[in-house]
Amino acid sequence: MKYKIIPVFLLLIGLLMAGSCQKSSGEQGPKKVAVIISTLNNPWFVVLAETAAAQAKSLGYEAKIFDSQNNTALETDHFENAIVSGFDAILFNPTDADGSVVNVLKAKEAGIPVFCMDREVNSAKAATSQILSDNYAGCVAIGKYFVQTMPKKAAGTTINYVEILGLVGDNNTWNRSKGFHSVVDLYPNLKMVAQQSADFDRNKALEVVESILQAHPEIEGIFCGNDAMAMGAYQAVMAAGKAKEIKVYGFDGAQDVIESISNGKIMATGLQSPQTMAKTAAIYADEFFKGKRDFPPKMPVAVELVSQANITDYSALTKRN
Fold first, then answer.
1. Average pLDDT along the chain, 321 residues, taken 10 residues at a time
2. What's the whole-model pTM score?
3. What range(s) does the Periplasmic binding protein domain occupy (predicted)?
């Protein structure tokens, strides 16, 4: 029998290649975390996104931020991308409480946990956990301060005010509105003469309030469902020369509004903590990777009232970069 002799250098090359293949196939890189945010056209959500990504990276994972631009269709594209690209978890800020459910369920079917931040989806079985501000309670506090700071007038005199809503498909919009009205509606002399949506957007709020002021120049208060809209509303009030007559209230605890409260412009806001929600979501993802499966369906995060009455207690926040 004849044997075929394999040259030594070919044998060595073959062994090296086999070892290399075994190494690459056995190696596993860090897990990947997708951070899908409703919009980055708002500084508050930028903080939410960047904190979530930074926390995931600090835990040893890769992280990438996706901007849905308040568009559910684009959000769907991001979820499909995350699924086919092999992301291992999704830290999620939904665009729509109902419309986003299907995207979360797709990820769940693919075995990818989804942790909602700040905004929720209307399903108890879709997300692995939802980390949410206590929007209702936060706006109860704002409602009380609103009542306390409205002008004191003779009995029977009506005080007109306006409410600027956020995205109508977002539960936060209605939880904030309900919390506010649970207090304000107890006072019959306070009359809401207009309630319009500005989609949580500063420029839209500016336009909406400008239009409202033309129809209702006599208003004395504006409650806005977030701080971006409060800044737009205040800009409209300033342009109309009514900054002393009309008081503006927001919600979020955004840096520019905290500074505006300190400067005696905006009356109050509800201070949420995007950092707390983002870090919690990333930590939950880390715990999921390590085997934990028992997460709270909803994790409430407290909201603090920051107003012209207590702004000195938050002086450190006015000095942040």
1. 39 37 50 97 93 98 97 97 98 96 98 97 96 96 97 90 96 96 97 97 97 97 98 98 97 93 97 94 98 96 95 74 38
2. 0.79
3. 33-292
> Start-end ranges of CATH 3.40.50.2300 in the chain?
32-131+274-299, 135-273+308-317
Query: What's the CATH architecture for 135-273+308-317?
Result: 3-Layer(aba) Sandwich (3.40)
CA 55 to each of CA 113, 189, 269, 273, 283: distance values in angstroms, whole numbers, following the listed order: 17, 48, 26, 15, 8
Return the H-helix or E-strand segment holding 139. helix 135-149
Residue 161 in contact with residue 230, Cβ under 8 Å?
no
Name, in order, each residue with C-beta under 8 angstroms of 21's C-beta and a sequence gap of 6 or more: none
Class of domain 32-131+274-299: alpha beta
Q: Which residues pair with 269 in a beta bridge?
A: 306
